[in-house]
Amino acid sequence: MEDAVNDAVNTDGSGAAAPILVAIDGPAGSGKSSVSRAAAEQLGFGILDTGAAYRALAWAALESDIDLDDEVLVAELIESWGYVTTLVGEPAIEVVLPAAIGVKGHDVTDAIRDPAISGQVSRVSKHPAVRDRLNEMFRRIVAESELPGVVIEGRDITTVVAPDAPVRILMTASPEVRAARRAGEMPGADHGQVLADIIARDAKDVLVVDFMNPAPGVTLIDTSELDFGQSVQAVIDVVQSAQSTAAEESEK
Ligand SMILES: Nc1ncnc2c1ncn2[C@@H]1O[C@H](COP(=O)(O)OP(=O)(O)OP(=O)(O)O)[C@@H](O)[C@H]1O
Ligand SMILES: Nc1ccn([C@@H]2O[C@H](COP(=O)(O)O)[C@@H](O)[C@H]2O)c(=O)n1
């Protein structure tokens, strides 16, 4: 993957180095997005939240009255939508729906976090043609970022999107801890329902990609017993350790 990124960057004649990649996967609510974002900020890296793209695609398909189970139609939507995201600063996601429906960009940053989208998103992420197209988009966004490093987080980043990334992490926590954290964000939420939703979404997603067990060479970070700051530090420690090892290797 790093070679793919290097090729993509270098063929434009810029000669710019490919960004250092930090790949992070994990189940729903494990802290991937928030911990990755904080770690990226401290490292001076960008952050690519790949789940946000799957969520935005589900939003766009629902908005366009497309059957989410129709692989061809959902994959075609990726060819015709305009997806814009930020890798640094405040997270912001914009989707431009196909011209037949409207050319105006929609800021979906908040809408894609709605439990209604969380409940439907697995219907679009299960399609191989959708995954191939989005993975291509993720690699292009990273290659064109001109950043020194990018943290990419999702479900299949350590295994499919960036299997050669110099840092690969599986971030997990017990279902009860994940549900308690998620419920804490939603005033009045029923903890039991949040737990059931998390377990149901993981069960659907894991049919497509294994994000429960670390692949060979992937570092497991279990945050069940860690607070937020300790979780961020755990990621930074893995990155810094990989950087030290790489520096030692290059001195040999
Ligand atoms: N170690 C931690 N200690 C306490 N709270 C945490 C920790 N890690 C994450 N959180 C909190 O847990 C919640 C869920 O985290 P986050 O949204 O980053 O998870 P996620 O894995 O990206 O979830 P999803 O896959 O559903 O998008 C957030 O409120 C976050 O601040
Ligand atoms: N690499 C990825 C990332 C996400 N998904 C799917 O998107 C959903 C939302 O992701 P969050 O990280 O925001 O929870 C997730 O439930 C998966 O269906 C994916 O398949 N691959």
Automatic annotation (TrEMBL):
Annotated keywords: ATP-binding, Cytoplasm, Kinase, Nucleotide-binding, Transferase
Recorded superkingdom: Bacteria
InterPro entries assigned to the protein according to its UniProt record, in alphabetical order: Cytidylate_kin, Cytidylate_kinase_dom, P-loop_NTPase
GO molecular function: ATP binding; dCMP kinase activity
EC numbers for this chain: 2.7.4.25
Coiled-coil portions: none
Reaction catalysed by this enzyme: dCMP + ATP = dCDP + ADP; CMP + ATP = CDP + ADP
Protein localization: Cytoplasm
Biological-process GO terms, alphabetical: pyrimidine nucleotide metabolic process
Signal peptide boundaries: none
Residues that coordinate or bind ATP: 26-34
Residue ranges of domain Cytidylate kinase in the record: 22-240
Pfam families: Cytidylate_kin
Annotated GO CC locations: cytoplasm
NCBIfam families in the record: cmk
Family membership: Belongs to the cytidylate kinase family. Type 1 subfamily.
Protein's recorded name: Cytidylate kinase
Species of origin: Leucobacter viscericola
